[in-house]
Write a structure and sequence with these properties.
The chain folds into two domains: about 110 residues, no CATH class; about 110 residues, Immunoglobulin-like. It has about 240 residues and is an all-beta fold. It has no helices and 17 strands.
């Protein structure tokens, strides 16, 4: 995310003993090319460069002003065609790891930062969630496939293992959605605000899985009442 008080830094690290070329694509929530301005002066829907053996690269967004740009980044190689239909190359590069750092500035209160690792795809991923005592949990879910949509199940279980809520979300090709749990959702006439008001006042585990056992990418963020953010790392769920 960039603009509206948000700033993003993508950190890439080459863990191999050879130089690796990379391409980092920027895409909108619906998978279209996103023209993003970087701190080095570049302005394009992708950026390319070299990672030296054992080296690290920091890629910063420029000050986006008041207008918020949001979407996601996709790591690939320069061998992928610039019109990339996704049929000749997959996401990720062997030997390259990294993280994404979000920074939110809310003058004059504070600046908050949160870091999440580069995600690999999985058919199911779980996180702890907490929507009690003023806390709220946000979920980001991506369908990485370029030409096919899929249905994703989001299931919340309480501390005692009981199902609190279960919702299904349809995602188009290369589409990403961000949903806030614990508040009224689209089914309550408030479009885009959430997915499970039933989880308000509860905490436990949320499991996000593909209804067709296909691959998805997901991560979670926890906001406390002061507005500070924490990343939620995936945990193993013996149910999947």
């Amino acid at each position: 995310m960039s603009g509206g008080g948000w700033h993003s830094t993508i950190v890439l690290r080459n863990s191999t003993t050879r130089t690796i070329r990379y391409r980092l694509e920027f895409r909108t929530p619906v998978g279209e090319q996103l023209n993003l301005r970087l701190s080095d002066g570049q302005s394009n829907w992708y950026t390319e460069g070299s990672l030296f053996a054992g080296g690290t690269k920091f890629i910063d967004t420029a000050d986006g002003g008041k207008d918020l740009q949001e979407g996601y980044a996709r790591l690939s190689t320069p061998e992928c065609p610039t019109t990339d239909a996704g049929t000749t190359c997959g996401a990720g590069i062997s030997g390259v790891t990294g993280s994404l750092i979000f920074k939110l500035s809310v003058p004059p209160q504070a600046t908050w930062e949160v870091s999440i690792p580069l995600d690999s795809t999985s058919a199911s991923v779980s996180f702890p969630y907490d929507n009690s005592n003023g806390y709220l949990t946000a979920l980001a879910i991506l369908n990485p496939f370029p030409s096919s949509g899929q249905r994703v199940r989001v299931q919340f279980r309480s501390e005692n293992g009981g199902v609190v809520s279960e919702k299904f979300i349809g995602l188009g090709p290369r589409s990403r959605t961000v949903r806030l749990s614990g508040v009224a959702g689209p089914e309550d006439g408030v479009p885009g605000s959430g997915i499970a008001k039933e989880t308000a006042g509860t905490k436990g585990t949320v499991t996000i899985s593909s209804d067709s056992f296909s691959q998805i990418v997901a991560f979670g963020l926890l906001a406390n009442p002061s507005g500070a953010l924490s990343s939620l790392l995936a945990i193993n769920d013996p149910l999947f």
